[in-house]
Amino acid sequence: MHTQVECIACLTKQAAGLAREFLAPHKREPFMRRVLEGLARFDCDAPPPLFTREIYRIYRDMDGKGDPYGEKKRHSNEQALSLAPRLRRIIASRPDMLEAALRMAVAGNIIDFGLGAHGCEEIAVEDTIMNALDSSFAVNDIPELIERLRKAEHVLYVADNAGEIVLDRIFIEHIGPDRVTCAVRSAPVINDATLTDAAQAGLDRLCRVIPSGSEAPGTPLSLCSEEFLECFAAADLVISKGQGNFETLDAPGREVFHLFMVKCPVVSQEVDVPMGSFMAMKRG
Question: Transmembrane region positions (predicted)?
């Protein structure tokens, strides 16, 4: 997916927010100047998450802190873990537990969207999940995905955000963890899940977890490690979580099931569905 004009404003706002929250006042203007200089040189044929990677490289170069949102990510994971027993009971009450766990994993994208702006009221999170369990999907390839999941011997599951990763764990429990390799980001970027978040969620004790090699908030194959690429090639089925992975995981001729919520107008236009839509889309 290409970077559009609207993405440039969004990337600039993202960088300004990072500077305002985590950089000392005297570093903010030099940081933004470097960001804007980089943005002027950025190839807009590339997807927007590739420039987010550059924003965080500049940030680490100027500040040295590894994970600016680390504390917020830990809190997000803790909140999701506190809900997990109730969520498992909800799944157990549904006629198709695998589909219920899948829909709940998509709801994780909604939870992240809410956390970004408003914080997380526990009852609101549960209400949102119940809505996802029974709502229509704008693109609904769930029946085919469920059928394929029941047969697949090796599933590659590309995770997205902290907090959400707890719901990914619940879904993987129902897929069959011995058949799953879960890939996370190789370095902190925004609130994307890393090996640290996977460990807090207990995912590393459930299935094989690997870093993808990507330091972007997505999974462009050009940045991925040899280990990830081998898993990607060998998997019977690839599940990609989140909008950033949808924007970056471009593999012509390779089927990928994308599970996400449409959160921005550019992606909304790309997939031709309204903002806020639930997506279970097969590409490739």
Answer: none
42-51, 70-79, 117-126, 157-166: lowest mean pLDDT where?
Answer: 117-126
| Nearest-angstrom CA–CA distance, 245 and 48 | 11
- Identify the CATH assignment for 70-283 out of 3.90.180.10, 3.10.180.10, 3.40.50.10880, 3.20.20.450: 3.40.50.10880
What tens digit of pLDDT does each residue of 16-34 get? 999 999 999 999 999 999 9
> Distance (Å, rounded) from C-alpha 201 to C-alpha 199?
5
Q: What is the dihedral of CA 220, 268, 162, 78, to 10 degrees?
A: -170
Residue 260 identity: F
Query: Taking the C-alpha atoms of 143, 166, 49 and 5 in order, what is their torsion angle to the nearest 10 degrees?
Result: 70
Q: In the chain, helix, strand, coil percent, each to 5?
A: 60, 10, 30
Structure tokens at 110: 């909604």
Residue 118: in which H helix or E strand, if any? helix 97-118
